[in-house]
Sequence to fold (743 residues):
Amino acid sequence: MGVDLDSPSNFMTTRLRQAVNWGRKYSLWPLPFGTACCAIEFMSAAASYHDISRYGAELVRFSPRQSDLMIIAGTISYKQASILKTIYSQMAEPKWVIAMGACASTGGFYNNYGTLQGADKVVPVDVYVAGCPPTPENLFFALTQIQEKVEKEGLEPSKVRHAARTQAQG
Amino acid sequence: MSQKLVERLQQEFGSEILATSSQHGDETISVAPENLAKVVAHLRDREGCEQLSDVVGVDYPERSRRLEVNYLLRSWSNKNRVRVKVEVPVDEPVPSLTGLYKSANWHEREVYDLFGVSFSGHPDLRRILTHHEFEGHPLRKDYEIEQGQECSRPENLFSDEDISRAAQRASDLVADLSGVEDEIHPSDLLTVNLGPSHPATHGALRVECLLDGETIIESRAEIGYLHRCFEKEAEDHTWAEVMPYTDRLNYCSAMLNNCIYAGAVEKMLAVEVTPRTRVIRVIVSELARIIDHLVCVCANLVDVGALTNYWYLYNIRESIYECLEALCGSRLTSNYARIGGMSHDLYEGFEDEIRVKMDQLKQGHDDVMKLIARNRIFLDRTVDVCVINTEEALSWGYTGPCLRATGLAVDLRKDAPYLGYEEYDFDIPTGVNGDTHDRIMVRMSEMIQSRSIVLQALEKLTEGPLWIDNPAIVMPPKQNVYGSIEGVMNQFKLVSEGIQVPAGEGYGFGEGANGELGFFCVSDGGGRPYRVKVRPPCFPIFSSFARLIQGRMIPDAIATLGSINIIAGELDR
Ligand code: SF4
Fold:
């Protein structure tokens, strides 16, 4: 963002934060990390009937370097886990993550030798969406929650935010 | 018909056929591993078994020859099926059939991966569904279901030697084509990974390509990124509890999976569903097929740059989903069929709504055809791209639209009718060349045929019971559960112990959206499956992908990948 956090003017920083977050909130660029059935519902969410662009998040980018919201849609297997981690680390700060569906949140009803028990085992997740698969409306609800989060957040990179959160949780 | 085949085999091979059996309409012969190739070659060359549909491993820890491998062979020309069985101890190899059928390659790799059967003479015996760091064989009975194993990094698909060989091949190719001797150095080849997270792969799979300029000299596909252990989960649940897992095989046509799985278990139980249920199953199956084709075609068109069609086709799908959601409570994962019936009846007004949706479908289909039928860009991108002929397609294990695109008019709804499909009037659309264009067009035409079947089925709907009358299979009505001790006991037993399926083996199959979808079931007489093996239609098709795209360019590979409709859920199970 080119924001100079060391600026001596505290007043400006507060205003800037509001302005920047307001902009960010309505222009999330999602990266769908779609692996399974939930990804098909993500397609529905993006299609004209449900129309994700009503929330300003229609610019789906498949390059992690161009996106700031990862939507993990689908089951993450052990084979997939390291790839998920790599792709997450390729995203530029600040970044947020939605775990869409039971599988991405907890492994869902797959508790077996192949399935990672939740994407949060490898990447930090901001919002979990219930459902198998969640309906597009559910996903939009998660999106608005991310927007609220974005609005309240500082301009520090997410690494710092997550570290602070982990510390707060003890 | 198959029985005569077994008799002929016995005459031909005498005591080399160790045993024969006939159960649930499936004929099985057992042979010793050393005679396997001979018998199967005979079946292929003399009995017209053009296709190896599947290879199924089963583990019996208490036996001395612990591992069993079943080969499911099909003859489309004679409308015949036969199963060949071999048994081996853990350390003894089975001869590979890769020389006879191209589809054997991946099927055998899968059995090796999950059961540890080694196949002698297999050109590339590596793990396929689990990852390269995995230890043990997860479908053996002594492997604990929850014993996960982490994978630290993706596998390198090409060794330095492979790359040198490919460079040599590229040099030869250039020399052949242009007559110019131009040595291509291994470092000239560019390695490009498609996937495992790539928008055009439509799911989690990976294709590593070696490129000379823009030409794909060689490629290798890697799958298993969505291996959710369906088959192990099935062994851990009752027969009825497996139903929701089937939704998530091909999640674009969950209803079809439900109906075919229910049909397979009903075959094992030797029961027939009621006429009303049969018609309802036909309706929902065809709706599922329509939805599957819609998603496949619209995504494929997006891949070749025709985005508008995505909106046109996807809206019809949404519109049909309104009905399906009202019907079963869920859009994608329907969980609608039950063993012996359907979870509940059609809602009031369903028929009229579906008629309206079918008109919308026709409209959408025609709109899209107008946009693509003579569209120069679309034709350039698809005509004569990645061609495969019938004979080769059969050897690779193609079924469904991709096989029909090669010009062969086969369809299990006609060739081995079930659910009363013989009473419906519909055509089998076929292609001519077996190229990407034909594959898309066959799917487009099939939607119209399915529409016609749905409309006919709506006419055939009659009042009547939904469930068969059999308390050992069907849950008692709720008033009995609350009102009588027998009812409570009946419900309790069905829920906790499951439906008791008589011991034996059976293969239930049907025409899935992508081709032959089958469930090979083994029961030990209890309430849980001893083994359920899915025959996923896109698994053998995808095994031919490297062959399809060899010598083509990356954009061709993308257009083709969409047209063969790979659904990771059923590919990796
Ligand atoms: S949560 Fe359900 S719908 Fe989503 S990927 Fe998992 S099984 Fe599929």
In short: Residues 275-303 of chain B form the longest helix (29 residues). The first strand of chain B starts at residue 17 and ends at 23. Chain B has 21 helices and 15 strands.
